[in-house]
Amino acid sequence: MKVLIIPSWYPIKENPILGIFFKEQAKAIQKSGCDVTVIFPEIKTMRYYNANWKKGIKSENEDGIKTYRYRGYNPFPARIPYATGYIYYLRLKTLYSQMVKTEGKPDLIHAHSCLWGGWAAAKIASEEKIPLVVTEHSSKLVRGQLKPYEEKEIIKTLKQTDRIISVGPSLKKALAHYTDKEIIEIPNIVDFKSFQNAELMETGKTNKFRFFSLALLTPNKGMDLLIRSFASGFKDQEAELFIGGDGAQKEELMNLAKTLGVDKQVIFLGAINREEVIQQMNACDTFVLASKFETFGVVLIEALACGKPVISTDSGGPRSIVNEKNGIIVPVDNEEKLRQAMERVCHNYSDYDSKEIRDDCSARFSEEVITEQILRIYQTLV
């Protein structure tokens, strides 16, 4: 079966873990016996203009996956309705034509997120008479951030979609406002074996109890809440908080840690690559996610794959991941409850069984389990 993957975002040189779960799912689907190709219009705004950035179409094997990219700028401001969507679609169409000449026509298209990969894929699927599957990931649907014209186009896209997948329960509920079709819930894959890398396990571990969090440093991710909770519970104790990721809030968060007197205990790692993510997940004692909204929570299952207990806000997707055996769910925006959960895990760490956490994660989120669910959907269409 020839499967064409069309992601709305995807790993790029500047951000190699952006949309990494799309890539890992594509690799898992190919491993199952499908012939997989990814096509992706890599679009930058003029704000990030770089004369050395090579524009144009490029096709190459990326980690075993045939990948076609169209690199170029979007000359229009993001505030102009449809501008990004139509640029994405026109470049996707060019990529599709070139891909078909080399690889042949796909049997099925699987797009990730309606805006704008699914929207553009729906046009090509309709023109080419190819079955279409769309998996939705975007938290904009849950957070009420969609513009009226975007809502209109999501409704159109889902009408043209043969199968609709949601990665989490809160997103499934939000999607139901835009379609009366069945919505199938299938979580993201965790690259389970990569997180069992013996060379990276326990690397950099200290005697201090280590909390770890990984996210874009933006208000939605609640890093300020996490730092305040850590400071109120662990200041001047044998504990540390490692924070991975970069973003607009970084300087503000660093100043907050200094103001609270925990700047020596809170370590900002900046943007980290895949190998460093695996290393930090294995080196920590507990992973914490303090987001206001999450459609799923890939970082949570990556921590569970390492056998680490997790603490998460009840931000949507994590509700389907965290249970009493592997961690604690706390209310969103509640500093006191988050502090209590962090103290509880720290002081009762022996209550958590690493092997049991890993086994449960594998049973629910391993590539074999998730791929089987996806292939069953494909087989109903091809």
Furnish the topology, listing elements before pairings:
Blueprint: E1 2-7, H1 20-31, E2 35-45, E3 56-62, E4 65-74, H2 83-103, E5 108-112, H3 114-128, E6 132-136, H4 140-143, H5 148-159, E7 163-166, H6 169-175, E8 183-185, E9 209-214, H7 223-234, E10 239-244, H8 250-259, E11 266-270, H9 274-283, E12 286-289, H10 298-305, E13 310-313, E14 327-330, H11 335-347, H12 354-365, H13 367-381
Parallel strand pairs: 1-2, 1-5, 2-4, 5-6, 6-7, 7-8, 9-10, 9-12, 10-11, 12-13, 13-14
Antiparallel strand pairs: 3-4
Helix pairs in contact: 2-3, 3-5, 7-11, 12-13
Describe the 3D structure.
The mean pLDDT is 93. Helix 2 packs across helix 3, helix 7 crosses helix 11 and helix 12 runs parallel beside helix 13. The protein is α/β, with parallel strands linked by helices and 382 residues long. It is built from 13 helices and 14 strands. An 8-stranded mixed sheet has the order 3-4-2-1-5-6-7-8, sandwiched between helices. Strands 11-10-9-12-13-14 form a 6-stranded parallel sheet, sandwiched between helices.
